[in-house]
Amino acid sequence: MSTHPTDATAELPELPLPRTRTTAPDQQGSERQGSDQQGSDRHGPEQQGQDQRDAEQRGAEPRSAGQKGGGRDRYFDLLRAVALFRVVFYHLMGWAWLPVVFPSMGVMFALAGNLMARSLARRPAPGVVRGRLRRLLPPLWLLGAVGVTGMLAAGWSPDEEGHPGWWWLHLAYWILPLSDPPYGESLPGVHGLISDGWAADMGVPLWYIRAYLWFVLLSPLLLRALRRLPWPTILAPVALSAALEFGALSVPGWRLEAQLSDFGAFGACWLLGMAHQEGVLRRLPRYVVPSLAPAVAGIGLWYTLAHDLKEGHDLDDMPFAQSLWSFAAVLLLLHISPSWSEWPAPLRRWDRLITLLNSRAVTIYLWHNVCIGIVEALWDRLWGVSWLEANAAWVLTSPWPQLPAVWLLTAACVLCFGWVEDLAARRRPRLWPDGRAAAHRA
Amino acid sequence: MMAMLMLRGYVHSEILADYRIRPEAAADKVPQEVLDGGPVVDTRNGQQTSLDVPDHRIVLTFDDGPDPKWTPEVLDVLKKHHAHAVFFITGTMASRYPDLVRRMVDEGHEIGLHTFNHPDLSYQSKKRIDWELTQNQLALAGAAGIRTSLFRPPYSSSTDALDNASWPVTRFVGTRGYLTVFTTADSEDWRRPGVEEIIRNSTPQGGKGAIVLMHDSGGDRHQTVRALDTYLPELQRQGYTFENLTGALAAPSAHTPVTGLDLWKGKAWVFLVEASDDITAVLVVGLAVIGVLVFARFGLMLLLSAIHTRRTRRKGFVWGPDAPVTEPASVLVPAYNEAKCIESTVRSLMKSEHPIEIVVIDDGSSDGTARIVEDLHLPGVRVVRQLNAGKPAALNRGIANARHDLIVMMDGDTVFEPSTVGELVQPFADPKVGAVAGNAKVGNKDTLIGAWQHIEYVMGFNLDRRMYDVLRCMPTIPGAVGAFRRSALDRVGGMSDDTLAEDTDITMAIHRDGWHVVYAEKARAWTEAPESVQQLWSQRYRWCYGTMQAIWKHRRALVESGPSGRFGRVGLPLVSLFMVVAPLLAPLIDLFLVYGLLFGPTGKTIAAWFGVLAVQAGCAAYAFVLDRERLTPLISLPLQQLLYRQLMYIVLLQSWITALTGGRLRWQKLRRKGQVAAPPGAVATADGGAA
Predict the structure, then answer these.
(1) Dihedral, CA atoms, B254, B255, B258, B263, nearest 10 degrees?
(2) How far apart are CA A76 and CA A164, in angstroms?
(3) The one catalytic residue among B215, B308, B516, B554
(4) CATH architecture of B39-258
(5) What is the DSSP letter of B567?
(6) pLDDT score for A108
(7) Could you report the per-residue pLDDT of A68-126, keeping only the tens digit for each?
(8) pLDDT over 60 at A50, yes or no
(9) Where are the domains of chain B?
(10) Do B639 and A291 count as a contact with CB atoms less than 8 A apart?
C-alpha cells in the first residue's frame, strides 16, 4: 500500500492532493490509509490495473534522493507557492526587479518537468500525457467559457481581425491551446467595475498554459534525449534562445516565434526538473553547481542590466537573459533541494496556505490577472471620495492597499472556479482545499 | 574604512551624481517681468522682483570651483588688479579644498552656492534641493565659517532662458531665503574659444553694468586667467569697477558668520572629507604594495617551483649518496577520538611497500580508538596509550617507543598510499636532510568547501613548498605526512607544546639546527578536510595563530649566526611576509573591488579583477599539472576568490587580535566523518566508500 504513495502526486503536477500524503502525520486519516487501492481508480483512464501498477513500482526505482519513502516534497511545494505568490505580486506591482529576485516561471516549469519525468518513469507516455492534459485543460475551458462569453457580449466579433474564418479557427485555441488563445484587444470594460483591456488581462497569461502544453507533449521525446545526452539536451534551449537573440535563427509568424522563444527561455528549466528526477544532477561533484551557476547568473544579470532593465521592460521581455537567469536560479534551487518530507518547524504554520496555493495553482494563475484589473478599476472609483484625495492620496496611488483586495478577489475566484480542478483530477470537488478539511473528513 | 571610502566617493561625485540636463521647455508660466528683468532674481517672501547691476559696474562670477590649480591663479589675477568677484562654489569642491574658500573670503570676494554636486535641479525633488543647499552651506561653514544668501542653479544662464521647468526651482529657492543670480554676459570660457573671444564675450556694450559668467574649475582654465589679466585693466581704464555682488548693488553683505553647533558641524565635515582623502591615499599605497607582493610571490613561486621540478624529476636523480634508502621506518599515528578513521588509516599503512613498524599512540580517546586498533590484530602494529596530554606529548611518547631511526609522523585521519612511506624517506639518502615534508592531499573534495581546500592544498604543496625547498626555508612539515631523522629530533629536544602548531615549531627548530628540510612530492597522503565553515575556521585559526607563535618563538634566529641565522634572516622574514603580513593587506583588494564597482570605473575594476583571477588561475593550473590533478575543480576558483579568501583573512585578523591581546587558544578537534577511507584508485577497506 505504501509502496506507491506518490502515484496521485505524480498524477497531479502542480496540484497537491492532501489526502494522498502518507508522510504528513496530520493527514493520515484511517480512511485514506485504507483507500489507497480504491484511490487508484480515480487516477483515470491511464490506470490499467494491477499489472500496470506493479510495473510502475519497478519503474519507480531510479528516483532522486529526496523521494525515498515517497510523499510530497514540501520543498517543492514551498517553491511553487512562493512562485505563485510572486507572480500575482509582480502583476500588481510591476517592479522590474521582481522576476530577478525570484524567477517564478522558470521554477514552475522546473517543478512541472520534475513531476512529468517522475510519471514518465513509471507509466507509458501516452497515458501520462493524456492525464496531464486532462488536468490542465478544463480550468482553461472554464475561463474561456466565462471570458469568451464576456468578450462577445462586449462586442468582440468574427470580423475583429478582418478574417472571420481565421477568427473561428483561432477560437479553437481556447479548446486546445497549441498557440495563444485569441482575445479582444481593446474591448471596453464596465465603467467603475472592470477596466478596459480586461480581455488582454485575461488572455496574456495564457502563454504559460500554451508553453506548458507543448512541454507536456514533447516530454517523452525530451526525456529520451535527456537520458541519452543529458547536458547537451539541457543546454539546447539556451542555445536556441541565443540563436533567436543574436539573429542566427529567425522564424516567420509571431505564433511560432512566441513558442520558440518561450521554449528557449524555459526549456532548460523544464529539462533541469526532469534531470533532477533522473539523478543527472547528483552525478556531478557537489562543487560544480555552486561554482558555475553564479557565473551563468552573472552573465544573465549583466545582459539584463546592459539591456535597459526598467519597469515595463524586464526579464519577461528578454528571453535570452531570462533563459540564463532562470537556468542558473533553478539549477541552484535544485542543487540545494533539501527534500523535505515534512515541514521544518518554522514553516509548519504556513502549511495550510501553501497547501491551498498548491491545490489551486491553475485557478489562481488563470484568474488573478482579471482580479487585478477589477481591483484597479474599483480603486479608481475611490478618487470620487474627496476626503481620501485630500488627506490620504497614497491610498489611491500606491498599489500596496490593493494587494489584500486582489487576494480577496482571487480567493473568491478559487471558491467560484476552483472546483473544476478537482473535476479535472476526478476528485470530489472541494471549496477550500487547504488540507484541513480533508483531515477532518478523514 | 569603508565609510571613509564611501565619503570619498561621495565628494568626488562618484555617487549620487546625476548628469541629466533638461532640454529647453516652454516658458509661458514664467512671469514676463522676470524674463525681461535684471539678472538678480529675488523671490523671497513671495515677491518676484529682479535687480539690475548699475552702469559701469561688472560683477565677475566664477562657477563650479574651487579648483586646486586654477582658482589660485584666478585669485592672483583678481588681487593683482584689485578686483572682487563672486565664486559660486559646489559643495563637493569646497569640501575638498576648504583653504581656497577661506582665501576667497579673506580677499574680499563673495561666495554663492552652486549646489552640492551640480545636478540639474529641475529634475530633483524639493527635498533633494533642500539637501543640496544645506550640504553646500555645511561645506562652506566648515571651510570659511560663513553662510551665504546667494545662489546660482547649475546649468543656468540669463533670466530670459528661464522656463517652466527651472522657474519653480528659482521660486522655491527664494522661499528658502536665497537671491538667485543669473548672468547677463556669458564669457563661454569653458569652450576655450581663445583669449580675445572671452574678452569680447565678457565686455558689455555702452558702459552698462553686467554680471559675467566665467569658470575657475572643470578643466583647463588658462585662457580664462590670461583673458582676465588683459580684460580687468582694460575695462578699469574704461571706467568700470569690479565689485562683488552686494557691493555693486549697494546692499548688505550676503555673508553671515556661522557660530556654535553649525560651525562645528561644518568643520567636522571638512575634516572628515580631508581624512577620507588621506586615508584613501594610504589605502591606494597599501593596494599597490599588496599588488606587488602578490605578483612577486606568484613570479617567484612559478620560477622556483619550475626549478625544483626540473631538479627532482631529472632522469637519474638521487637524493644523496646513501640512495636508495631501504632501512625500515617507524610510523607514528597519534590519535585522539579517531574511531571513524583509524581503521582505514592503519590498514592503508599495512599495504606499505617500505618496511615499517606502526605505533598508534592513543591520546586518552574516549571513543575506543585504541580498542579498534587492537581488535584488528595486525602484525607490526603497536598501540601505546596515554592519558590525554596533547599531540606533542603523544608524538614524543611515540618517538620514545619507536624502534627505528627514521620516524614518519601522520595524523589519525590520514590515509597513505602503499608507496608513500618509501617515497617519504628517500631524501634521507642525503645525510644533511633532517626532515621531509610529504604531499598532503584533500580526500573529500566533492563539496564546494572541499574543492576550495583542494585547490589551496595543491597550490600550497606544489608551488609554496617547492619554493621554500629551493630557498631552504620550509616553514612547516605537515602533521599529516612528514618524516624526521631521530638524531635531528633528539638534537632539538623533540616536539614541544609551546605553540599550537607543533609541526611548524619543530620544522623551524630543525632548520635552526642546520638540517635541510625538503619536499618529497611523490609521498602522497590523503587527508580529510573540514567540511563545515565552523570547523575550517577553528582549524585555520589554530594553524594561523600557531604559526605566529612559532615565528615569535624562533625570533632570536634573526640575530644568531650560522645556519640558525641564515634561516632567521631569509626564512623567517619570508614566511612572516607571505603568511602573516601580506594576507593582512589582502582585504584591500576586496575593499577596492567594492569601491570600484560602486563608484567606477566599473568596467576597469571588473577587468582588473578578472585579470588577477586569470593570473591566479594560471598558477593554480600549473600547480595542478605538476601534481597531475584533474583541472575541473578549478571552476570553483572564482567563487573561492569571493568567499573563501575573505574567510581566511578574517581568521588571520582574529589570530592577530588574539596574539596582540595575549589570549590562549584551546586545542580544537575536528569532527571527523571518516570519509577518506583509501587513496583514490585503491579499494576502500573500511565500509566508507573511496574518497
Answers:
(1) 110
(2) 45
(3) B215
(4) Alpha-Beta Barrel (3.20)
(5) I
(6) 96
(7) 334 688 999 999 999 999 999 999 998 999 999 999 999 999 999 999 999 999 999 99
(8) no
(9) 39-258, 289-661
(10) yes
Q: Cβ contact (<8 Å) for B448 and A294?
A: no
CB atoms within 10 A of CB B641: 19
Active site residue B215: yes
Among chain A residues, the shortest Cα distance to B450 is held by A287
> What does the DSSP 8-state code read for residue B642?
I
The answer to whether the CB atoms of A287 and B636 lie below 8 A apart is yes
Q: What pLDDT, on a 0 to 100 scale, did the predictor assign at position B19?
A: 67
Query: Which residues are B442's β-sheet partners?
Result: B527
Residue pair A221/A271 in contact by the 8 Å Cβ criterion: no
CA-based diameter of chain A, in Å?
72
The reply to whether residue B636 touches residue A291, judged by beta carbons under 8 angstroms, is: yes
B100-127 residue pLDDT tens:
999 999 999 999 999 888 888 888 888 8
- The architecture of the domain spanning B289-661 is Alpha-Beta Complex (3.90)
Nearest chain A alpha carbon to B636: A291
For residue B109, which of B82, B137, B86, B141 has the smallest C-alpha distance? B86
Interface test with B, best of A287, A292, A301, A331 (most B CBs within 10 A): A287
Partners of B89 in the β-ladder: B65, B113
Helix (H) or strand (E) holding B277: helix B260-312
Residue B669 pLDDT exceeds 70: no
Burial class (CB in 10 A: 0-12, 13-18, 19+), A361: buried
Q: What is the pLDDT of residues B434-490, one digit of tens each?
A: 999 999 999 988 999 999 999 999 999 999 999 999 988 899 999 999 999 999 999
Taking CA–CA distances from B634, the nearest residue in chain A reads A291
Q: If you search the block for the grid coordinates 640512495, which residue do you land on?
A: B323
- Cβ–Cβ contacts within 10 Å for residue B635, how many? 17
Write out the residues of chain A at the interface with chain B, using a CB-CB cutoff of 8 A: 285-288, 290-292, 294-295
Write down the pLDDT at residue B322.
84
Q: Contact B636/A286, CB-based, under 8 Å? A: no
Instruction: Report helix, strand or coil for B156.
Output: coil
Which of A323, A116, A91 is CA-nearest to residue A223?
A116
How far apart CA B198 and CA B196 sit, in angstroms, is 5
Domain ranges of chain A: 72-342
Q: How far apart are CA B215 and CA B211, in angstroms?
A: 13
User: 3-state DSSP call for residue B59?
Assistant: strand
B97-100 — which CB contacts under 8 Å span 24+ positions?
Answer: B97/B66, B97/B67, B97/B68, B97/B71, B98/B139, B98/B142, B98/B143, B98/B144, B98/B270, B98/B274, B99/B143, B100/B65, B100/B66, B100/B68, B100/B71, B100/B72, B100/B75
Average pLDDT, chain A: 82
pLDDT single digits (tens) B386-429: 998 889 999 999 999 999 999 999 998 899 999 999 999 999 99
DSSP class per residue in B91-110 = HHHHHH-HHHHHHHHHTT-E
Distances (CA, A) of A41 to A3, A44, A53, A130, B218: 17, 6, 11, 16, 82
Mean pLDDT of the B205-231 span: 89
CB A61 within 8 A of CB A333: no
Which value, to the nearest 10 degrees, does the dihedral of the CA atoms of residues B422, B426, B432, B434 take? -20
The answer to whether the Cβ–Cβ distance between B635 and A292 falls below 8 Å is yes
Task: Kindly report which listed range (A159-168, A424-433, B677-686) carries the lowest average pLDDT score.
Answer: B677-686
Write out chain A residues lying below 8 Å of B450, CB-based. Answer: 286-287
Q: How many CB pairs under 8 A join A and B?
A: 34
- Angle ∠(A180,A185,A191) on CA atoms, nearest 5: 130
Inter-residue contact B435 to B517 (CB < 8 Å): yes
User: Is the bond into B66 cis (omega within 30 degrees of 0)?
Assistant: yes
- Is the per-residue pLDDT at B159 higher than 90? no
